[in-house]
Amino acid sequence: MHESIFLAVLFPLVGFLLNALFSSMKFIKSGESGKEFFVGAFSTLMIVLPFVIAVGVFFELQSLPASEQKFVVNVYEWFKAGAMTVGVSYQLDSLSVLMMLVVTGVGSLIHLYSIGYMHGDEGFARFFSYLNLFIFAMLNLVLADNMALMFLGWEGVGLCSYFLIGFWYDRKFEGVGIETTTDAANKAFMLNRVGDFAMLGAMFLIFQKIGSLTFESILSQLSAFDQTHLFWMALLVFIGCTGKSAQIPLFTWLPDAMAGPTPVSALIHAATMVTSGIYLIARLSPLFMLAPDVMNLVAIIGAATAIIAASIAVVQNDIKKILAYSTVSQLGYMFLALGVGATTAAMFHLVTHAFFKACLFLGSGSVIHALHEEQDVRQMGGLQKVMPSTGTTFLIGAIALSGFPLTAGFFSKDELLAKTFASGNVALYAVGIVTAALTAFYSMRAYALTFLGDARWAHDKHPHESGATMTIPLWILAALSLIGGVIGLPAVIQEHNWIHGWLSRSQIVEKEMTMAHSTEWILLALSSAVAIGGLGFAYSIYTKKQTAAASQNGFYNLLLNKYYIDELYNALFVKPMRFVSEKILPTLDAALINGVLNGVGTSFISIARSLKIWQSGVAQNYALAIIAGLVAILSYLMLKQP
Amino acid sequence: MPNDYLLSLPILAAAGWSVLLIILEAMLSRAALTRVFAMLGFALVGGLSVIGFPLQGLAFSEMLRIGGFQHFANIIFCLSGLLVVALSEKYLDDENVHYGEYYIVAFISVVGMMLLAAAANMAILFIGLEMMSIALYVLAGLMRRDVRSNEAAMKYFLLGAFASGLLLYGISLIYGATGELALHKIAIAIQTGSASMLFWIGFGLLITGFLFKISAVPFHQWTPDVYDGSPTPAAAFMSTGAKAAAFSALIVVVTNFSTLLQNSPTWSLVISSIALATMVVGNIAALAQENLKRMLAYSSVAHAGYMLVGIAAATPDGYSGIMFYTLVYTLMNIGAFGVVALLESKENLLLASDYAGLFKHRPMLAGAMAVFMLSLAGVPPLGGFIGKYKVFAAAVDAKLTWLALAGVLASAVSAYYYLRVVYFMFMRDPVGEAISAPATSSLAFALIAVAVVLLGVFPTEILRITDAALKFAQLPTQTGF
Predict the structure, then answer these.
(1) Looking at chain B from residue 169 to 208, which residues have their Cβ under 8 Å from any Cβ of chain A?
(2) Would you say residue B480 lies in a domain?
């Protein structure tokens, strides 16, 4: 099965090309359901097939003894320059296959959902072409056996994210310094550039030291690096990851990325692309283990991002913004886990988060769809009765996100918090548990304001349950959010749970941490209490008051305005940059650069004109030139007889 | 060991086929038929070279050296001949000079090129060179009622004969110094004894002869005049096939003397300076040309300079780069000349500004021409870029970074005159009436353009072949297997 891995990458690419063709041919006249279904089903199939291959590879890997569980498939040599050879080659180990399963599995469901969601949109085929291209890039990212190809995927997903955030390029979108969806797309793209620059720096450092970019040789030659090198490499990789995975200080793009269609938010900005930073650090975990300072930084940034984003989420009124800040916060959790050395816990949370956050986003999409693009929770309410499937699955997603006992989110969040506690960072643990309380609170707040209480939407709207292509993915994701935790039961229940066993077969490493069973029970109980408490508190408030705002004090405004971080960035970076590029550079450009360039150009042309004199057209002169050249050559050869 | 006849089958077949063409034309005198047979002949000989690719050895009393290198060169010559013949008919018809002899002479010229590349003995080398050149003089003067064509032929002949004289004089001095005419024996002679002053003078004269043929500065001045006056397809032929042949022979000569030349800073400086001068003068002079044929002539000078960088590097990588370069150059330059010929014969359009708005009327033709121009300018991912990259990289490896740098700067200058054509075709509105051209020829150019793109995107296979092909050329003392 593993030999056919190139097919898994090829299918989405074919899907992209054909959809691009459909799109440019205007194959679908707006709202032709039959053709829409054909295009949508075809695109979905192009993701389901890689999923089937991923499952096949999964079983193939599992049937092998643990020591041999890795395939490297060389598809072809991409380029060769000096000592560097970069191949399009894919490595299949337990880590990359796990990521591939998530990407193609959740990806398939979201493709299916999009058939219903995008119905009637003018850019139906264009949407699916971008979505397919995204999966193509994402698969390259997670399967690449070298950082160069990984970076191709890394940039590719960023590009698709840009396309999809600005998908409705003519729509208005509000934000700090943002007026249209295109501005939001630009913001995402540029903040990612900052991170990508650091990532490139890390790759240069690695290549300079060991002359190779394959993960295999990086991880086997770690002893070649000295402490300073390790520090800078790990730091640069981490900065790269803060861009893609929306961490402090580069997280501000993700909430604005909600300008894109909701399935995009679910697929790219919750389940897959934003987790690529976590994947990469896990992949390079042996390197990070050798850079303890950076590990501490990762943990601190993760924890800080988690609590700051969670506190912002508590007061937001746009349902997608709530979920966006929640995503930032949950990604912070994963970085916290990575930072304390609990690599597996981070990956576990990545998987469960993909389930419940995709479920929540798709649920919110269903609501937004039913209310004709209404996203403000203050204009919702009472939807549980009219949209029972959406409401129930949203509730399941929300309690899984909160870490309600026995849901998927409960086990993964508990594990990473327990590991944080076990690592001895009690302060970080405290931040984590407060964040958990906030998480439970805003989850229930979002659910209660949207689905419970009285209907606050306009009377001319007649919301109804979405169609089967949208509810089936919701139910599957809800089911996974409920039971997905079985892959990583805590040690007190199951000594060696599945995901630990599975990931231990790859090269990822983590810190050994042991904990008394009694302590673990206490932490479990605490997590449960916090989750239930937060949920209950929010329920009691928002089923009674039915208004979004708690009280309009200063702290509330601070949170509502997201700590004014966007304003700060705007004043610090955007405005000075604008000033320079609008006021100073044009003059410089006209005077200096154009002047010099045009001067060089005209002087070359006048030289060329003067050369014409030599081209007399007289053959004797040409012969004379030949003789002159010959004499020059011969006299030089004779003078400096070689 | 394959026998002599089998080994040199492509050359023998080509020689035989040219006789067949003469008889055919003499008996039937139907140019169109001769043309078809000439094309068949090129295909046949090229095919024989492909099939015979692995064969190698010395043939006919060590007169001919046949190996992958020669086969690869033969394929380029045949490709050049085939494309030129295919694109000539309309031009010749329009100029009223559609004679069957044109094809026969072109074919004989290719036989000369093949001999030139396969020469293991300087006598054969001279015969090949003359066979090729005299045929080209005839092609240049084909339009005998046109003053400029006559002038071109006369100039080419006079200066060519002059250069041949120098070359022959060089051969005789080398013979005088070493007592040998066979290249590999000369190599042994100068290895055992040391190379005398007499040898170096002879070598300088020999090289000058080649530098004339490839139009290196300061031996280049005939180039614009001759290309301008000749029938345009013939100019395409001179700039690709003949140039490839001269480079092939030059590579054979310098690889035979590689032990002597590789350790010689003097030689390196001489050839580097000429390469530099050729790149600079060719590119700068091309800037001022309004007439596209003259522009392409200077561009052909400039490209000779880039290829000389590979000779200056004096490494297998450099030579392999040149081989790849000649292949790409053959495709893109015949493409460019072909488009010029097509428009010239129809409307007498020769200036870059005459191409204004071509894209609107003939998008496929304009697209193909844009590919040729961009590839000539060395824009990735087209074939021309890979060719330049290979020779420049070889120069850097050979510690001639300054030369590679100069080459890159010179080719930056070249972007101006190539892109000017693209600019007129795409950015300007058409003036006057629609430029018409048969759709089939547009398709042919599109195919050549696709080949140029493919060579740029997937160069690895071809480069593997050129690397392998060089192996035999590098073994001067080997007397066959």
Answers:
(1) 195, 197, 200-201, 203-205, 207-208
(2) no
Residue B322, chain A, CB below 8 Å: the answer is: no
Q: Which pTM does this prediction carry?
A: 0.73
Strands (E), A366-471: none
Chain B residues whose CB is inside 8 A of the A617 CB are 225
CB B89 within 8 A of CB B231: no
Q: What is the mean pLDDT of each run of 10 residues along chain A (642 residues)?
A: 88 94 82 85 94 93 80 84 84 92 95 91 91 95 93 94 90 83 90 92 90 89 88 94 92 90 92 93 93 94 95 91 94 94 93 95 92 87 90 95 92 92 91 95 93 84 87 94 88 80 85 84 91 91 68 76 86 88 86 86 87 85 92 88 62
- In chain A, the residue whose alpha carbon lies closest to the alpha carbon of B262 is A642
What are the respective helix, strand and coil percentages of chain B, to the nearest 5? 80, 0, 20
DSSP secondary structure letters along A68-102: G--EEEEEEEEEEETTEEEEEEEEE-HHHHHHHHH
Partner B contacted by A522 (CB < 8 A):
no
At position B296, the amino acid (one-letter code) is L
Using DSSP, how many helices (H) and how many strands (E) does chain B show?
Answer: 22, 2
Residues B105-158: pLDDT tens digits?
999 999 999 999 999 999 999 999 999 999 999 999 999 888 999 999 999 999
Give the residues across from B435 on adjacent strands. none
Among the partner-chain residues A80, A617, A642, the one whose CB lies closest to the CB of B200 is: A642
> Which chain B residues are within 8 Å of A607, Cβ to Cβ?
284
B39-53 pLDDT, tens digit per residue, is: 999 999 999 999 988
Structural domain contains residue B481 = no
A613 CB within 8 Å of a chain B CB: no
B288–A638 C-beta distance less than 8 A? no
* Spatial separation of the C-alpha atoms in residues B21 and A116, rounded to whole Å: 70
Is the CB of B195 less than 8 angstroms away from the CB of A642? yes
Residue B184 lies in a domain: yes
- The b-or-e profile of B336-354 (16+ CB within 10 A means b, else e) is bbbbbbbbbbeeebbebeb
| A83 neighbourhood in chain B, CB within 8 Å | none
Q: Which two tokens stand for residue B344?
A: 């010239």
The predicted complex's ipTM stands at 0.89
Average pLDDT rounded to a whole number, residues B210-235: 94
Q: Name which of A74, A615, A618, A620 to mutate to probe chain B: the one with the most chain B Cβ atoms within 10 A of its Cβ.
A: A615
Q: In chain B, how many domains are there? A: 1
Nearest CA-CA distance, residue A266 and chain B, Å: 37
Question: Chain A contacts of B166, Cβ < 8 Å?
Answer: 626, 630
Closest approach of B239 to chain A, Cα-based (Å)? 19
B58 forms bridges with which residues in the sheet? B65
Looking at the DSSP assignment, which residues form a beta bridge with residue A74?
A89
- What phi-psi label fits residue B437: left (phi over 0), alpha (psi between -120 and 50 degrees) or beta? beta
Select from A637, A638, A639, A641 the residue whose CB has the most chain B CBs within 10 Å, as the one to mutate to test that interface: A637
Q: Which residues of A261-299 are buried (b: 16+ CB within 10 A; e: fewer)?
A: bbbbbbbbbbbbbbbbbbbbbbbbbbbbbbbeebbebbb
A127 and A40 in contact (C-beta within 8 Å)?
no
Contact A416, A337 (CB under 8 A): yes
Domain carrying residue B141:
2-472
| Contact call for A638 and B155, based on CB within 8 A | no
**Which burial class, exposed, middle or buried, applies to B291 when counting CB atoms under 10 A from its CB (0-12, 13-18, 19+)?**
middle
Assigned domain for B191 exists: yes
Paired tokens of A310 = 């969670």
Please report which helix (H) or strand (E) contains residue B157, including its range.
helix B147-178
